[in-house]
């Protein structure tokens, strides 16, 4: 080999390893404050210089825009059939994302799904969800106490992991799972930061024959899926007995329902921090002992078909025993009349955070004051 060729090869090798260090070994740490409306992790994400508000959703395989992509991005011919958490099917189209900015990071060559906007996300200024297609390219620390999201390169593990506790975790087929062991049984939960607050065990996954042994309540309720549609459910809610995820002891509040999969919601991590690395297949939490508390009101109100109505109600509660049922119309909520979903929803969620009692006046003339309390009780 001639000297010039040798020098050229050496230069190319040097350039290759320099680029590898720049891309793989590059260290950065972006700290992003987040909103936790609806129990979610909501951060600013820019598309082609236009800032949007996106929820970090480890339960979603793909990132999704709520309607605006149709007007702002270039559509592709590719579509995807999506099944929501309530089992509803819909077809979504992919759009070219252009340039995405999250913190100091720039992402190009990405495609995002587009779906219809819905009331509940519109109320809370949520423009879309950041799915696993993007989440897996970075490492994340979610500080639920300080409401801070810290973003790292996917090959970087922060020093403070020594003070955290590893969970039994597996990232497979673009889905992250947390496992809990109890009496020889291993329970699999989807780690779903987009599920909001609640965790659930699906009756399709597990037949819990001894559920009556645990403190519980039965709720007539419902939830909004990714399409914004309200699906009625009647779950039993119970305190899952202490279980192990590696060396971490966990006792979540569980909704036992007919959803398509079992998942862990964000309420379990309240006041704690998580570190997530999908590429390294690792999940850490800041405490080795986690017990979720279920302190809820016996009913919640929503706006449907032009009126305030009972959206969820605990069977056997004082208001239930007065004959109040899901769907009953309400004339006044805390002496106020609300005429749209957004105003009512925002007011009620703020009231829920404060924990203050509230009064509802039913169309029937019944007036009830409701307080937040521990709603799970041992069956007699």
Describe the overall structure.
The protein is mostly beta strands and about 375 residues long. Helices cover about 15% and strands about 45% of the residues. It is built from six helices and 32 strands. It has helices spanning about 5-25, 70, 120-125, 130-135, 320, 340-355, and strands at about 30-35, 40-45, 50-55, 65, 75-85, 90-100, 105-115, 130, 140-145, 150-155, 165, 170, 175-180, 185-190, 200, 215-225, 230-235, 235-240, 245, 250, 255, 265, 275, 280-285, 290, 295, 300-305, 305-315, 330-335, 360, 365-370, 375. The protein is globular. The chain starts with a helix and ends in a 6-residue tail after the last strand.
* Architecture per CATH nomenclature, i.e. the level-2 architecture of the largest domain: Beta Barrel
**CATH homology-level superfamily of the largest domain:** Acid Proteases
Evaluate the radius of gyration: 23 Å
How would you state the average pLDDT, rounded?
A: 86
Helix content: 10-25%
- Major beta sheet summary: 10 strands, mixed
What is the assembly state of the chains in this entry? Answer: single chain
**Count of distinct structural domains:** 3
The total count of strands amounts to: 32
Instruction: Note the overall shape.
Output: globular
- The level-1 CATH class of the largest domain: Mainly Beta
SS field, number of helical segments: 6
List low-pLDDT spans. 1-25
- Please state roughly what percent of the residues sit in beta strands, choosing from under 5%, 5-15%, 15-25%, 25-35%, 35-45% or over 45%: 35-45%
Distance between the termini: 88 Å
CATH topology descriptor of the largest domain: Cathepsin D, subunit A, domain 1
Give the helix/strand class: mainly beta
């Amino acid at each position: 080999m001639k000297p010039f060729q040798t020098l050229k090869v050496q230069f190319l090798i040097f350039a290759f390893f320099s680029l590898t260090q720049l891309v793989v070994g590059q260290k950065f740490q972006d700290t992003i404050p987040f909103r936790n409306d609806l129990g979610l992790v909501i951060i600013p994400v820019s598309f082609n210089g236009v800032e949007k508000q996106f929820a970090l959703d480890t339960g979603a395989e793909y990132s999704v825009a709520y309607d605006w992509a149709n007007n702002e991005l270039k559509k592709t011919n590719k579509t995807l059939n999506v099944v929501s958490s309530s089992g509803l099917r819909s077809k979504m189209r992919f759009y070219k994302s252009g340039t995405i900015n999250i913190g100091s990071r720039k992402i190009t060559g990405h495609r995002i799904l587009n779906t219809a906007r819905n009331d509940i996300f519109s109320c809370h200024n949520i423009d879309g969800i950041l799915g696993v297609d993007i989440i897996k390219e970075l490492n994340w620390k979610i500080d639920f106490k300080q409401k801070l999201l810290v973003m790292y390169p996917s090959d970087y593990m922060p020093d403070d992991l020594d003070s955290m506790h590893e969970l039994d975790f597996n990232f497979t087929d673009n889905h992250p799972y947390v496992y809990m062991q109890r009496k020889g049984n291993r329970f699999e939960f989807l780690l779903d930061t987009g599920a909001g607050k609640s965790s659930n065990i699906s009756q399709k996954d597990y037949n819990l024959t001894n559920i009556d042994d645990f403190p519980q309540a039965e709720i007539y309720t419902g939830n909004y899926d990714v399409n914004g549609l309200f699906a009625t459910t009647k779950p039993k809610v119970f305190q899952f007995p202490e279980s192990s995820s590696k060396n971490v002891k966990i006792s979540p509040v569980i909704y036992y329902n007919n959803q398509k999969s079992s998942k862990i919601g964000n309420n379990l991590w309240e006041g704690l921090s998580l570190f997530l690395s999908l590429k390294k297949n690792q999940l850490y939490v800041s405490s080795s002992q986690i017990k979720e508390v279920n302190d809820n009101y016996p009913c919640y109100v929503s706006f449907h078909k032009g009126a305030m109505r009972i959206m969820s109600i605990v069977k056997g509660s004082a208001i239930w025993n007065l004959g109040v049922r899901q769907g009953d119309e309400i004339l006044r909520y805390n002496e106020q009349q609300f005429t749209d979903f957004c105003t009512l929803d925002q007011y009620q969620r703020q009231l829920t955070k404060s924990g203050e009692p509230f009064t509802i006046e039913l169309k029937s003339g019944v007036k009830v004051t409701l307080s937040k309390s521990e709603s799970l009780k041992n069956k007699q």
